[in-house]
Amino acid sequence: MKKYDLIVIGGGAGGLTVAAGAASLGGKVALIEKEEQPGGDCLHFGCVPSKALIEIANRIKSARTLEEFGVHVSGNIQMEAVMKKVKEAIDHIQVHDDADRFRKLGVDVYIGVGAFHSKNEVIVNNSNIIYGKRIVISTGSRPFVPPIPGLKENGFITNETIFSLSKLPRRLLVLGGGPIGMEMAQAMARLGSDVTVVERSDGILVKEDKEVQHLMKDVLSKEMKLIYNTTVKSIEAGQNGKVVHLSMEPDKQEFSLEVDEILVATGRTPNSDKLQLNKANVQTDDRGNINVNERLQTNIPHIYAIGDVNGTLPFTHVAGMEGKQVVQNALIGLRRKIDYSNVPWVTYTSPEVFHLGLTEEEAKEKKLDYDAYKVDLSEVDRFVTDHQTTGFVKIITDKKGKIIGAHAVGNHAGDWMQEVVFSKQFKKKIGSISNVIHPYPNHSAAVQRTADAFWRKKLFGGFLPKVMEKYIRWFR
């Protein structure tokens, strides 16, 4: 039986970070990955292909708006050509996650399914047993498929299978108004599908600040049909497609839609069910998420869980952050605690939605004494010249100017809001951003203008103006 300092189960973003980091520090490492090539959901089904598809859809949308300049675009979308470009992006990035690259780093790569045989033993493909002093679970998650009568029988697609489409659906129904659902809904609408989104709650992107939700409802409703407070009761085959029977609250009004394809985007479920966790006595919650403490340890101290499988924040950059910390804790013996308070996320619709820290509603719920500073993009010259003025920046601070939350809607907001992430993480007050020199005209001036609002309030509100008035009269 081979023995290792560290066994990593799962070759996604978190697992690869752990394997590479531990090997570079001299640890003897085993990496178990069920696919022929590592990379995980992000590379093969999530971040990479979805953003490639979104970019193509946005280009097509832009091309169709050139008629006002005398440029006319015609023709139908060739879905196979679109997906070919998506695959090219995957293949280009796959080089960095290639199994042979990790073998060269000294990692023993096992291709197959890993499961626990005991607290320190992992069995690969039900045959090969290896021993680990420490074990890291990084098996990710998969799409949650709701138990809707007729759904499986009549077929559906998810974020894992949408990139295999050879034909653009003429009528697409999207189940779920979260980030994945809205990103894919808009992309498919821009490619030419007639898209309807059904959401059980009363809005989309419900984890965002209310002002963000309201603006995005307005923006996206121009490109697709949004139906709220509605559940799918059943699905059956129709003469020209799939007939979906729905019920709308509060009066349970029933109606039906006929569509060509159904995209299920109703959340994620952790890939913990095939790990035989009972053989290691590792505990999970009722949804299958592996419980971890602030050091990312499970109830069995030498077993760690990172990424989607631990049920915290389902983002690739979070899995990578957790992976870096696990290397320090599991291999070196540090006892560092994970901190999610400075983790941003972006929903890659057009315009993009940026989120960091508390929303204004959360600040109110916590009964914090806060200030909120907001600037519309129509007040920022670069967005005016780009004719992309839909959106705003909102920064929430405590009374001393310390940033506790930041939110934005705008084209490429995930890029130009990074200045705020730095400021929050390194405890810089909002006023410090105002003092940074920004090139003119620049998109990040939206952030600077928001910070300027802080100084305007400080300088022109309260007692200070009266004091300054007396000082100026005195000063010669």
Count of DSSP E strands? Answer: 21
Low-pLDDT residue spans: none
Number of distinct helices: 16
The overall average pLDDT, rounded, is 92
Rg, please? Answer: 25 Å
Number of domains: 3
Strand content: 15-25%
CATH class of the largest domain: Alpha Beta
Structural class: alpha/beta
Shape: globular
The CATH superfamily of the largest domain turns out to be FAD/NAD(P)-binding domain
Q: What fraction, in percent, of the residue positions are helical?
A: 25-40%
For the termini, the CA-CA separation is 87 Å
Largest sheet: 7 strands, mixed
Stated plainly, the CATH topology of the largest domain is called FAD/NAD(P)-binding domain
User: Per CATH, which architecture of the largest domain?
Assistant: 3-Layer(bba) Sandwich
Binding site for NAD(+): 176-183, 199, 267
Cofactor: FAD
Domain FAD/NAD(P)-binding: 4-323
Family: Belongs to the class-I pyridine nucleotide-disulfide oxidoreductase family.
What tags apply to this protein structure?
16 helices; 7-stranded mixed sheet; 24% strand; 476 residues; Enolase-like, domain 1; FAD/NAD(P)-binding domain; 3 domains
Set down the secondary structure blueprint:
Elements: E1 3-9, H1 13-24, E2 29-33, H2 40-44, H3 47-63, H4 79-94, H5 99-104, E3 108-111, E4 114-116, E5 121-124, E6 128-137, E7 141-143, H6 151-154, E8 171-175, H7 179-191, E9 194-198, H8 210-220, E10 225-227, E11 230-237, E12 242-248, E13 253-259, E14 261-264, E15 268-270, E16 303-305, H9 316-332, E17 344-347, E18 352-357, H10 360-365, E19 370-376, H11 381-386, E20 392-398, E21 403-410, H12 413-416, H13 418-425, H14 430-434, H15 445-460, H16 464-474
Parallel strand pairs: 1-2, 1-6, 2-3, 6-16, 8-9, 8-14, 9-10
Antiparallel strand pairs: 4-5, 5-6, 7-15, 11-12, 12-13, 17-18, 18-21, 19-20, 20-21
